Amino acid sequence: MAMNLRYLLLFSLCLGLLDVLIRVRPDVLIFVGASSVPHACSPPHASFKFCDSSLPVKDRVNDLVSMLTLEEKVMQLVNKAAGIPRLGIPPYEWWGEALHGVSNGGPSTTFGGSVPGATSFPQVILSAASFNVSLWKAIGQVVSTEARAMYNEGLSGLTFWSPNINIYRDPRWGRGQETPGEDPLLSSEYAINFVRGLQDVDGSSSNRIKVAACCKHYTAYDLENWQGVDRFHFDAKVTQQDLGDTYQPPFKNCIVNGNAACVMCSYNRVNGVPSCVDKNLLTGTVREQWGLNGYVVSDCDSVEVLYDDVHYTQSPLDAVADSILAGLNINCGNFLASYTAKAVAQGKLSEKEVDESLSNAYTVLMRLGYFDGNPLSQEHFGMLSASDVCTVEHRKLALDASRQGIVLLKNSPTHGLPLSHTTTKTLAVIGPNADASTTMIGNYAGIPCKYTTPLEGLASYGAKVVYEPGCTDVACTSSKMIDAAVKTAVLADAVVLIMGLDQSQEREGFDRSSLSLPGHQIDLIMQVASSSRGRNKPISLVIMSGGPVDVGFAVNLPEISSILWVGYPGEAGGQAIAEIIFGDHHPGGRLPMSWYPESYTEIPMTDMHMRPDPSRGYPGRTYRFYNKGDAIYEFGHGLSFTTFFHRKLSAPFEIALHEKQNINSLQTSNHGEEFLLEKVDCASSSFNLRTVVKNKGNRKGDHVVMAFWHASKEHISNGAPKKQLMAFRRILGLDPEQETEVLFNLNVCEHLSYVGNNGRKLLGIGVQKITIGDVEHHVHVHHRRSLNL
Ligand SMILES: *[C@@H]1O[C@H](CO)[C@@H](O)[C@H](O)[C@H]1NC(C)=O
Questions:
Q1: Catalytic residue among 222, 242, 299, 502
Q2: Are residues 359 and 415 in the same domain?
């Protein structure tokens, strides 16, 4: 987000003036707390029809829009909406961020005074690793409660541009950390649950919303800057096939099943057209097909970018007109305020189209209760205040989220984790992330309630902790401090190496060019490891990072007894790490993205194809398609301190597909037989999958059950994924010998389908494999023409 400084300055001056004008009115001083902030529909401006909360939202919006002049309207189409002083409507700042906690990354939110900080959850990629849908919803609920409390305190707005649900296509992407990973089903479930946590009032979807979420960045946005190609200029060449079953599903689910009140169009072009002026994408798909009840916002300055930087339109007027006509409603930036009136005057768009944009935006504010007067007097959230931020329960949830997400990648049965409380007298804690604080909260964070660093967490366990950073920072450009670290390690009973990345290595605007640990980090690890060769000393390698790193060097190194990936684990991350290392919590997280060797970086980051292309040696992307077979750890990998076994209980051996109409729409190609999904009666193609999970080890443990679909070879050669997550469920703490049954309700159309190269959904006919852990099941999908329609 690169705001134009000129406009920022201009606008803050205007806002300052309005503030003073409104502030001298005696009526707004009645309420304490939020009193310094004026509210729409407060006396003496409360008697307008649009202020009457008993009327339908639509009527109120129409009334409000009908009272405005064109000049007034265009000033509301930008993130710093000017407000309408004559109607008592104060300026509104649309831009807020709440990716994993209320953040001050957007101008609507300020920390200080009554709210010095807010609960800072793990960066999204780690929460995703929990595979726990109720956790994602619970996080959303806490974030929206804290946001409402801050709104009541005059410290925040009600519209937030989160979550980021772009598919994590390439491990180098600097913003992969913000996303739920590489799988469309996982990303969709994350989106639905987090958005509903943010938005739902009283736990249900309704017209009334708690705060407004925003699904971003629509669409096919997952590159910051690779070899001089930046996100502003990048033209993502995406096939209809990949759009259909990879790039679009998270957005569709975010809107259709999450009911998100907003979509943000991205900076990049999609097949030549900047997404913010793509009428097919914005109006055709988002508004008409998916039924968005809300507003479309641009990324910050992306309308300006598509004119100024990309020269996609001939004039700023065209950029503005084209984007509004395509379906854009609010512009982060100032282009729409500056040029829309002129564009209307020149006939490039009509005032009616401006009204439509504004109506979509105002509908969201109405649903938020923004036009219901002072928030402190409002029914649902008026009681929330500073004391509802950083509560004990909220901070516990932040801790629980990092516990649930942390992934055990490797563990030695003889001298691995957990460490013994009693025999670990001296613990060496080494590495540039050992004393991490801000690093733990990643990007799009706020100010946390309180940090517990890894060092603090580990020190609380009673062993004598000796700390050596080994490098001055994660870049680790010098090897000078390695000797001291090795000496410390030699004298300790156990060693914890806390290595990895931070925002200097991966961030917005900055992709990695290497998957290796930076600088001398590997030297440090190897020297510590070799210093204890043959001693069976526990040496844990902890990787704190958003994106995956090439840990291939450590996977088979016997001296490294365990490897943990801890993401950016949030404000309480240090405690969660320590609890897992000492066995007070048993890890159950699974990787939401695959980990590859450094050689992966030979693939051009700009190649958006998900499917492999053997003719040019292109291996494809993610566990669903990548065919080189050299992933270090694949999507879904994660160990436990105990051992789980799956047993198949029941699953169908054959599934008959019924056609909707009594015509034979079976297609036969050299790839085998397949059905166009649109011709199949999907309602009759559901089936149940039952499995039993048993803890056969001798420790308690959480477990994630994952069911995968494996298409047949013929269909894979026609573009079906070689492996595809169909369903998952996290199971809470099973004791040794305890077992539990898991039931998945599945549907062939939804879970055993893929998109063909013409962009239409296909169902493969024939024998297909389903796996849950080690359990394999074969199901024969065949067709039976229905006799009656
Ligand atoms: C999922 O997360 C919620 C919220 O933290 C927690 O109460 C629940 O026990 C978790 N479920 C599992 C199966 O771990």
A1: 299
A2: no
pLDDT, residue 37, reads: 75
Q: How far is the CA of 134 from the centre of ligand 1 (A)?
A: 6
- For residue 703 the two structure tokens come to 């477990």
Mutate to test the pocket of ligand 1, among 119, 133, 135, 700 (most ligand atoms within 8 A of CB): 135
Asked if the structure places residue 663 within a domain, the reply is yes
Cβ(138) to ligand 1 under 6 A? Answer: yes
Q: Is residue 41 part of a domain?
A: no
Q: Are residues 670 and 581 in the same domain?
A: no
Domain count, the chain: 3
The helix/strand/coil state of 5 is helix
Measure 730 CA to ligand 1 centroid, in angstroms.
Answer: 8
Domain shared by 602 and 692, yes or no: no
CATH number at residue 533: 3.40.50.1700
Sheet of 562-565: strand order equals 407-411, 562-565, 539-544, 494-500, 426-430, 464-468
The model carries a pTM of 0.94
Please check whether residues 772 and 647 belong to one and the same domain. Answer: yes
Q: What is the pLDDT of residue 19?
A: 32
Could you tell which of 121, 127, 130, 132 is best to mutate to test the pocket of ligand 1, judged by most ligand atoms within 8 Å of the CB?
132
Provide the 8-state DSSP code for 629: -
Q: Among this protein's residues, is 299 annotated catalytic?
A: yes
Q: pLDDT tier at 787 (50, 70, 90 boundaries)?
A: very low
Question: Can you tell me which atom of ligand 1 is nearest the CA of 132?
Answer: 1
Percent of the chain beyond pLDDT 70?
93
How far away, in angstroms, is 402 Cα from ligand 1 center?
12
Q: Are residues 574 and 430 in the same domain?
A: yes
Q: For residue 373, what are the contacts with CB-CB under 8 A and spacing of at least 6? A: 39, 40, 41, 42, 46, 51
pLDDT tens digits, residue range 604-620? 999 999 999 999 999 99
Are residues 677 and 732 both part of a single domain?
yes
- What is the β-pairing status of strands 539-544 and 562-565? parallel
Residue-range definition of the domain harbouring residue 652: 643-783
Are 666 and 706 found together in one domain? yes
Instruction: Of 221, 125, 239, 240, give the one whose Cα is nearest residue 166.
Output: 221
Q: What is the pLDDT of residue 341?
A: 98
pLDDT in tens, 306-347: 999 999 999 999 999 999 999 999 999 999 999 999 999 999
Q: Among the three residues 598, 616, 634, which one is the final residue of a domain in this structure?
A: 616
